[in-house]
Write a structure and sequence with these properties.
alpha+beta, seven-stranded mixed sheet, 3 domains, Glutaredoxin
Length: 394
């Protein structure tokens, strides 16, 4: 007995208990009306199933929900109504309440019902369609997973490779997966990766030229080629194009060549770019704090896209750089590294920047190590900085 002042966790709420009582009463009427070894009255079987359906309508994830669904399926089997089995199971599949064992049983009963209604060929056809749908969902989940910003390039490629293997016998899915891998390779730059991306894209276009990822990869490859034409090579291993831009705080000229001897990370950004600000807060701030005194220089290159001025970026930076509380310690601003402004976007164009945040990691000799989407490069950049800036990860 539960104290009057507390809720007994073993007893369902009154509304749920009433529905359970109604189902149990229907069960008892069915038992009473069914002779030993005889056939249950169809109308009472339906009433019993309907009682549990009423429970599921109100409490699809209630404690008795698995029992309710099991009872309903049993009643439908005894009623010999395969069409109603298919209709009921499809309704459950549209929700998200089935446990794995329930799903397995319901799926088997559905295929058995379809076989009775339309024959084994129809059941096989529906089973194949269900497998293809599950396969497509699996592949698309993998491709969505590969787009998570915190993954390294190697992790993203490994996930996409899994999607390619999982889609080997479905042309449209394989085309999407191959094109997705091509897009990641294009982000990294370099002739070797560009050649591999072109090969993957050619295969993808042969499978399904109208797939969204294929179209996007084709357009990006074409626009990248146009953007880089006559602008120099920014592939890894090549010398980083030099520039001279004004410091937004002091207005002094910052020259890239003056930073030789240190690892340089260029971060092309803008204040209106949410992913740019996220990259600063989630990655660059910690990188600057931990490695600025160990040979790393972060240079935020503010773009002039959408007409953003140096004054606007300075206003944002000054607000961001105020002392803040982190835990119990008062620290300096999180984003107080060197920032310059690219008033004509000439530097961004030289580095082939098509979207931001775009990062370029440059070694101590002034050669490009990585270039691409800032979020996609986080793990690779961190690993390189740890190895070349005299500080190991704690």
């Amino acid at each position: 007995m539960c104290p009057a002042t507390t809720l007994c966790q073993d007893e369902p709420p009154a509304a749920e208990a009433a529905l359970i009582d109604a189902a149990e009463a229907a069960r008892q009427r069915l038992i009473d009306a069914t002779p030993t070894g005889g056939t249950a009255p169809p109308e009472l079987l339906r009433a019993f199933a309907d009682a549990w359906e009423a429970y599921l309508a109100e409490f699809p994830k209630g404690d008795r929900a698995p029992q309710a669904r099991s009872t309903i399926l049993s009643c439908l089997m005894r009623l010999d109504d395969p069409a109603l089995v298919v209709q009921t199971v499809d309704r459950w599949f549209a929700g998200d309440s089935l446990t794995p064992p329930e799903f397995d049983r319901a799926l088997k009963m559905r295929f058995a019902a379809v076989e009775r209604l339309r024959g084994p060929e129809a059941a096989l056809s529906e089973a194949d369609a269900a497998i293809r749908a599950a396969q497509e969902k699996h592949v698309r989940l993998l491709l969505a997973k590969s787009a998570i910003s915190g993954l390294s390039t190697a992790q993203r490629l490994a996930i996409i490779d899994e999607a390619i293997r999982a889609s080997s016998d479905v042309a449209a899915l394989r085309a999407e997966s191959l094109a997705s891998k091509a897009l990641v390779l294009m982000e990294q730059g370099g002739e070797e990766r560009a050649a591999e991306a072109r090969k993957l894209l050619d295969e993808a276009r042969g499978l399904d030229p109208r797939a969204p990822s294929v179209t996007r990869a084709h357009m990006q490859m074409r626009s990248r080629a146009e953007a880089l034409e006559g602008q120099g090579d920014i592939a890894p291993g090549k010398a980083a194009p030099v520039f001279a831009l004004n410091n937004i705080r002091t207005n002094e000229v910052v020259k890239l060549e003056d930073l030789r001897g240190r690892v340089v990370l260029l971060d092309f950004w803008a204040t209106w770019c949410g992913p740019c600000l996220s990259l600063m807060d989630s990655f660059l701030a910690d990188l600057h704090r931990d490695y600025a005194d160990h040979g790393l220089v972060i240079v935020g290159v503010g773009t002039n896209w959408r007409g953003e001025t140096a004054a606007k970026q300075l206003e944002w930076a000054e607000a961001k750089d105020q002392p803040i509380l982190r835990g119990s310690q008062r620290t300096r601003g999180e984003c107080n590294w060197l920032k310059v402004h690219d008033p004509t976007n000439e530097v961004a164009q030289t580095y082939g920047v098509e979207g931001i945040p775009f990062c370029v990691l440059i070694d101590k000799d002034g050669k490009i190590v990585y270039a691409g989407n800032g979020h996609a490069l986080k793990a690779d950049v961190l690993k390189y900085v740890q190895e070349h800036c005299g500080k190991s990860e704690n």
